[in-house]
Design goal:
Helix content is 38%, strand content 25%. The protein is an alpha+beta fold and 237 residues long. The longest helix has 19 residues. Helix 6 packs parallel to helix 7. The chain folds into two domains: 125 residues, 2-Layer Sandwich (Yope Regulator, Chain: A); 106 residues, 3-Layer(aba) Sandwich (Trna Endonuclease, Chain: A, domain 1). The protein is built from seven helices and eleven strands. Strands 1-2-3-4-6-5 form a six-stranded antiparallel beta sheet, with helices on one face.
């Protein structure tokens, strides 16, 4: 790896304050004024690229995912999909936890900024917008039911009473037993689920209701009472 060529590539107005520190032969840590929210510098390393002498590999040796793991786990298929989309949108690859980007020397400074931005986005996955969190909650619920409850013949989006406009997120069946599953992520959904259960019971439907919460403790007091009075079984989170 030609250090002089790398230094020349970094000598641009966009990379003022960048420097290199040799950790070991062929391994250069990039010193740069880009930081995580806690003030720690984004850790980036440069090494030889398998693409040839005109290229450099930008990587993190697994430090980005290690930092993320202190506060957040990519523990579900939905979270994995969002993590993968962050990498794809930033042109970054993942090799057993090591994030990397191979770039031509002519584009080194731009690629470093691109990689640093990707590392910051990954470390801030726990701060997704509320809409993304909601999406992840229902994706997680769907993944769990589809993968682990096939014995109960799961069917999504069912209307037990055709004239009643609120649907059941999942209907499960086992022998002669029917289960209705509601995913609840908000006060509004809790109210709708409670009203639907009342309507179903008044129509003398035979079923057992299962309510899965994103965060039961986040519900308002009234919504919590409505569901507790009408649901057969609740899962707090």
């Amino acid at each position: 790896m030609n250090i002089n060529s790398i230094r020349e590539s970094l000598n641009t107005p966009r990379t003022v304050g960048f420097d290199l520190y040799e950790r070991r032969p062929g391994n250069q840590q990039l010193i740069l004024p880009i930081h995580h929210e806690d003030g720690d510098m984004v850790e980036i390393y440069l090494q030889e690229s398998p693409k040839g002498d005109a290229y450099v590999r930008i990587c993190d040796y697994g430090l980005t995912l290690m930092r993320l793991s202190y506060t957040y786990e990519i523990s579900t298929p939905a979270r994995q999909r969002i993590f993968d989309s962050i990498l794809i949108n930033n042109g970054v690859a993942n090799e057993e936890g090591n994030l990397y980007l191979d770039t031509h020397l002519d584009k080194l400074s731009e690629s470093i900024l691109q990689f640093a931005g990707c590392a910051q986005k990954v470390c801030n996955m726990r701060y997704w917008s509320r809409e993304i969190i909601r999406s992840a909650f229902y994706d997680d619920l769907e993944d769990h039911i589809s993968a682990k409850m096939t014995a109960y013949s799961p069917v999504p989006d069912q209307f037990p009473l055709p004239e009643y406009p609120i649907c059941v997120d999942w209907s499960l069946t086992y022998e002669s037993f029917r289960f209705y599953v509601f995913g609840v992520h908000s006060n509004d959904k809790a109210k709708n689920a409670a009203l639907a259960l009342l309507e179903f019971k008044q129509a003398s439907l035979l079923f057992t209701s299962l309510v899965v919460h994103e965060d039961m403790e986040a519900l308002g007091k009234k919504e919590h009472i409505y569901l507790t009075r009408n649901a057969d079984k609740q899962y707090p989170g």
